[in-house]
Amino acid sequence: MKSSNMFFIAILLVIILLGNYLREFNYGLVPHPGEIADEYSYGWAGLSLIKDKYPISWSSLNSYKTTEDKKINVDEIYDKDPQRPPFPIVKPWFDHPPLLGLTTGGYAYLKGVREYQDASVAILRRPMLKIAILTTILIFILGWRLYSPGVGLLSALLYSTIPTTLISSRLALMENVIIPLFLGSLIFADLYIKHKKKLYWLIALVFCSVAMLFKLSAVAIGISLILIALYAGKKGKRFLVTSSVFAIIMPLLIFIIYGAYYDWNVFVDTLAKNSQRFYGAGAEIFLSAVAGSRFTTTKFLTDGWIILGWISLFSVSLSEWNKTKGGTILTIAALSYLVVFILFGSESYGWYKFPFFPFIILATSKLLVNLFETQNLFTFVGLLLLPFGSQVHRLLGIMEFQKYAHLLRYFSIIVLGLFGLNLVWNKKLVLLNKIFMVTILGFVVWLSVKEILYLNTDRWYFVT
Fold it and tell me: Where do the domains of the chain lie?
């Protein structure tokens, strides 16, 4: 292995260790247990499948014939909030395919959990911590393949330190498993584009099918593969498209057989109720994805990194669409999930946006690297002021910030001065510009780490 590759892998290892440390920090307390009750729903369904060979869990859908309201005091949630509504326990549970339940519920079972009230989020979230490590590696690989090792490493760093992506990756939700499967599928599709070996394409299809057995919205992966086949499949295009369609149909058939085995009528009614959910996100559904800060059912986590990410994705798509492989594949992936996001849309729950995160992070890294290489000081600093602002506001608040407002004013003067000097001595200031830009980026990433460590269980109550 080349020494340069070893260097990149060594840096990636440091990033993985940092991300894992931050992810494990208060992972069972932030977000608060019970804040996203779906975590229990999936885990309980898997636990009952393993223990009783029958899917039983809670559901808000009224398609089930057998429903029993129970106050299951998991994580002592009813001790903390006696007025909390009981869980409507249903059977057989068909809200979603069973694979996430078997993952988190299976892990809980291996740890000795047999009763629902013992399946705490501290147990259910443990597998997600390891899956997030895999996601970090895959983001690095995809960034390297589409652009450069620098883009890959920066993407891995941002995924491991941005508060929204770091905290979201702790949650025992289906989207956090779809993400690495989506990335893996794109990586093997890219390998197929380069080497034209059908094995790579078939592996990408397997990732697609498996993802859909976690959640049907993973059909976005299959749509992406179809579009990539149209984009890159000069030869064998029919095989690429038809095999992608088959990869979508197969998990649907498996889910249908699963439903028919337990109770066909309830299964059909549940699918119908899922498709008829109130479209609470409204016409602003895309605006909620780009600018909305809703994180869980009750919390809003404003994060300038996410706004920067969407600006970056639009910029990369505008400048690279159908010109570079990286820009085209990022656009295809984001558009595919956006279509599914709109089609499957109901309430604007924060976790529905999670699958966008790796693509806006990759675009952010690409844009920042471009700005660094071209020494575009104004755009580089201006964009990083977005996460700087949201992080400092959360860490200090308006009143406490008054003590440091003069530093922000001095900084703006320094930026103006350096910008002016570049108009006169641009070629002589290359090193100074790069040191300045790396320092600014490092400082904003450091603020991200500070914010993650700042958000303990008490402060999470006041997150808005």
Answer: 38-124, 174-368, 374-460
